[in-house]
Design goal:
single chain, alpha/beta, Rossmann fold
Length: 340
């Protein structure tokens, strides 16, 4: 069966293409002209369509002879020289063009998978406190900013055409996606300091302190470097909690959604196998790198989680990239032993 993958050169798309080929699918990939990451597809036995999804004719051409679509393409932030309006319109209209074209072929398209984002909740409690934890698919949707709003608008486009035409669709909401060496910096003093800075400047954050305390100063003073792993806990000895997701698990989730018989328009959270504490991650990273752990305590607690139980049971999502596996993989990339 031939499948269409948009955003095929991205951190999720490039891994998805490889997983699809390994599962004996044929792949047609949409690639923008002069894509700087096109080399990620070198040597792969796939059909490449060059064009922009803002052009309806490109979408219609890409649909020919495919029986499933996985839409990963989006911009996370504006490109150089791009206005916020252009950025927003790019994400929304590319999704609209693709979904509306697919809907005309709803009888043939066996599954349309739309990769959204957990930012639709959002679960970034340093920006706006979550209503409850862990964040599941029933959590209120309160997107803020052009990117998050564009992803929710994309979801509504998918649902709208699903209701109107019977398009068999599935929506995925990944948490913070990691690839390459990115995971190594997510648990560091520099990362914790950035979270504290953002949270303590926002009155709606779970980290805000009315007395104006700026907790990051003491943390940065005590650290030997910003790269030092930080085992941070609250005054009640509750460790900070983070649940990102490896790009390979997102790709796996896309295939699970593609092959599932879930209700059209249903949404599923995609995240790491389990929430990861900063104490656990600091120990893993310290052991692997030799960097000393900074044990730290603050009067606030940061929790960024995304419950994936529904995905595990609803689409047979079986993530395998926990903290140990992600760190080992990142170090292999750092040593030049892997390009994933």
């Amino acid at each position: 069966m031939k499948l269409l993958v948009t955003g095929a050169t991205g951190q999720v798309g490039s891994r998805l293409v490889r997983q699809l080929l390994a599962n004996n699918y044929e792949v047609k990939a949409v690639v923008i002209p002069n894509d700087p990451n096109r080399n990620r597809l070198d040597g792969l036995d796939i059909e490449i369509i060059e064009g922009n999804l803002l052009d309806v004719s490109v979408c219609e051409e890409a649909m020919k002879k495919v029986f499933g679509i996985i839409h990963t393409a989006n911009l996370v932030s504006p490109l150089p020289g791009m206005s916020e309006t252009e950025f927003f319109n790019n994400n929304v209209m590319s999704t609209f063009n693709l979904v509306s074209s697919a809907s005309k072929l709803a009888d043939r398209i066996q599954r349309f998978v739309y990769v959204s984002s957990s930012s639709v909740y959002p679960n970034d409690s340093h920006l706006i406190a979550t209503v409850y934890n862990p964040v599941d698919e029933m959590h209120p949707l309160r997107p803020e900013g052009a990117y998050a709003i564009s992803k929710l608008v994309g979801e509504e486009i998918v649902r709208g055409y699903t209701r109107q035409t019977g398009l068999r669709s599935t929506i995925l909401r990944p948490s913070g996606i990691c690839s390459g060496t990115a995971i190594l910096g997510r648990w560091s003093v520099g990362s914790v300091s950035g979270i504290l800075r953002a949270g303590q400047s926002s009155p709606r954050s779970s980290l805000y302190m009315r007395d104006g305390t700026e907790l990051w100063h003491a943390l940065e003073t005590a650290a030997t470097s910003k790269d030092q792993p930080c085992a941070i806990i609250s005054i009640y000895k509750e460790p900070w909690l983070y649940q990102p997701v490896d790009a390979r698990d997102v790709a796996h989730g896309c295939i699970c959604a593609l092959e599932s018989k879930s209700a059209p328009g249903d949404a599923f959270n995609i995240s790491a196998p389990e929430p990861i504490t900063f104490t656990q991650s600091a120990e893993v990273i310290s052991k692997a790198t030799g960097l000393p752990i900074l044990n730290w305590q603050v009067p606030v607690r940061w929790v960024y989680d995304l419950n994936n139980v529904k995905a595990k049971y609803g689409i047979n999502y079986q993530p395998k990239w926990g903290i140990k596996e992600m760190v080992e993989s990142a170090l292999a990339v750092q040593r030049g032993e892997s390009d994933l």
